[in-house]
Specification:
Helices cover 40% and strands 22% of the residues. It has 219 residues and is of the alpha/beta class. The chain starts with a helix and ends with a strand.
């Protein structure tokens, strides 16, 4: 079995047994900075914890994840919570460049038609993919997003590699966040509005990961 398939099996099983409903600290932070006329694209939405938090705050949300189990569970919760007018979920792998790129363009266009702008929300996504997939993702954002659309990302950095983990048994890549900031500004035409790298940002049980947070605007 390939590494990719083992990883997908891991996450399908994870979302069967691990239920985390409360919003992340990153979601709380991002919501405090957002205007109301924003369409949220939650990439790698997982359990939907942040998708549902955005929706309950009145934002329209589209969430995608490659885990069939995660999407199935999230769709059930949409009906149970009466949020079908605010939120929808689709199974999609961000490695599918054609369909992912198409969705970015469609959602950016939809946000504009509704006199708003798009927020691409990437919590714990960048460190879960390899460098070629990250480059493809960023290129899709460059190509599909319009001026004033935004990206909000939180991810593990190189300083986190040797720190203890609650869930140590799945793939992680430790990102050079300073290099990523340079790429966003110099290659992909984003303006950095906020950048921090530190611990204490997303403590979980006994784990205090070393993370970066970036909020950027397409120019």
């Amino acid at each position: 079995m390939s590494i990719e398939m083992r990883s997908l099996d891991y996450w399908n099983n994870f979302y069967k047994t691990c239920k985390i409903d409360e919003e992340s600290t990153f979601c709380s932070f991002v919501k405090s900075t957002l205007p109301k006329n924003v369409l949220v694209f939650d990439v790698g939405c997982g359990s939907g914890r942040d998708s549902f938090s955005f929706a309950k705050a009145g934002y329209h949300v589209v969430g995608i994840d490659r885990s069939e189990q995660a999407i199935r569970t999230n769709l059930e919760r949409v009906e149970q919570n009466g949020l079908s007018s605010f939120i929808c979920f689709y199974r999609m792998d961000i490695g599918d460049r054609e369909n992912f790129g198409k969705m970015v363009k469609e959602l950016s266009r939809k946000a504009r038609l509704e006199q708003g702008r798009l927020l691409v929300y990437l919590r714990f996504v960048l460190h879960s993919v390899d460098e070629p997939t990250q480059e493809m993702l960023l290129q899709c954002l460059h190509d599909g997003m319009e001026s004033e659309d935004m990206v909000a990302a939180e991810f593990r950095v190189k300083e986190d590699e040797s720190r203890p983990k609650v869930f140590p048994d799945h793939y992680r890549r430790y990102v050079d966040s300073d290099a990523l900031v340079r790429e966003l500004t110099e290659k992909y035409r984003f303006q950095i509005n906020y950048y921090v790298k530190d611990t204490g940002l997303s403590v979980f049980r006994d784990e205090d990961p070393y993370l970066a947070r970036i909020i950027a605007t397409r120019i």
